[in-house]
Design a protein that fits this description.
Blueprint: E1 6-10, E2 23-27, E3 33-37, H1 44-55, E4 66-72, E5 75-81, H2 83-92, E6 100-105, E7 117-119, E8 123-128, E9 131-136, E10 160-162, E11 167-169, H3 171-212, H4 219-247, E12 255-261, E13 265-271, H5 275-287, E14 291-294, E15 300-306
Parallel strand pairs: 1-2, 2-6
Antiparallel strand pairs: 3-5, 4-5, 7-8, 8-9, 10-11, 12-13, 13-15, 14-15
Length: 307
């Protein structure tokens, strides 16, 4: 099945977009940091966990990075990119995030740049060794023939640009987030059903008592019964508020390891993908007045609080 959206090559000196069409975007190496590593690992999820440490020394400290990893024969290719900076640049060229349906990287199709692609008057996107690279056009002879960039450069896999937060989330990460949210939704449903069962059972008990002992119809007795319901309802609302607060700590890449709740307290364990995410979750948890402690040398947080 063909794709109706045009593939657009994005580079620093590109012209502005003057239409309202939707695009798929391929980033030149000017918008990402790359490293190729031959590692003794077999699975993508293992490489994903290693990405921050592999690229850490190559990245400025003030960025908010996401990672894209793929395998090129026996070499793992690690790509780091800053979604916010990419979104700002596209907006400056007249392309809003809402009109970007897919994002690719030039490194995904390096073999196609064996014939260089001109990037305006000063630069060229070409193949240097195994890597797609932007180089000054003066390094090429005047007789060099350039190819036109077209939809034929489209890779088989890309990532999506999230309009609401200006962040880019891969399909796998989006799937994991949806599963986490679904689990929280199921917890709400289970708690609601349990509360309904308790309330129904109590109502039946009250009805039996009122039938056998008419004296319980007094105002004093009715107020005591109502107070029991208010206590139950208050406790269930508190549990739902705790679950709502914890769900806001589940940032991209953060995993909920465990969650325990009793009548008075709750304890949860969150595993973060890197130090930066750990600090963000820790700060958010403290803002909500939760008790937070780190477990061992891993990015594992124990979060406790009262109901």
């Amino acid at each position: 099945m063909g794709n109706s959206n045009r593939l657009l090559l994005v580079y620093s000196t590109m012209p502005s977009i003057d239409d309202n069409a939707e695009y798929e975007v391929m980033l030149s190496p000017q918008f990402y940091t790359l490293k190729r590593e031959q590692l003794p690992i077999s699975y993508h999820r293992q490489a994903k966990k290693l990405a921050p440490s592999v690229l850490d020394n190559l990245l400025p400290a003030d960025g908010n990075y996401e990672y894209y990893i793929f395998r090129d024969e026996d070499v793992w290719v690690f790509i780091a990119y800053d979604p916010e900076e990419i979104a700002k640049f596209l907006i400056s060229k007249g392309l809003e995030a809402e009109r970007v349906s897919k994002l690719y990287f030039a490194e995904q199709v390096t073999q196609l740049f064996s014939i260089p692609v001109s990037l305006g008057e000063d630069s060229v996107l070409s193949l240097a060794g195994d890597t797609a690279t932007v180089v000054p056009k003066v390094l090429f002879s005047k007789e060099t023939e350039y190819q036109n960039f077209s939809d034929s450069f489209r890779p088989t896999e890309g990532v999506s640009l999230s309009v609401g937060t200006h962040s880019i989330i891969g399909k796998k990460e989006a799937w994991i987030m949806s599963i986490i949210l679904l689990l929280f939704a199921l917890m709400f449903i289970v708690e609601g059903m349990r509360y309904q069962q308790v309330a129904t059972a109590m109502q039946q008990e009250v009805d039996e008592l009122l039938k056998d002992y008419p004296a319980l119809q007094s105002q004093y007795a009715r107020e005591n019964i109502a107070q029991k319901y208010r206590k139950i309802d208050k406790k269930e609302r508190e549990k739902r508020e705790v679950l709502k607060g914890l769900s806001k700590l589940i940032l991209p890449g953060v995993q909920l390891e465990s969650l325990k709740m009793d009548g008075k307290n709750f304890t949860s364990m969150l595993k973060c993908p890197n130090e930066k995410s750990t600090l963000r979750v820790l700060s958010s948890a403290k803002e909500r007045k939760y008790r937070v402690s780190r477990i061992g040398n891993e990015n594992l947080l124990k979060i406790e609080g009262n109901l």
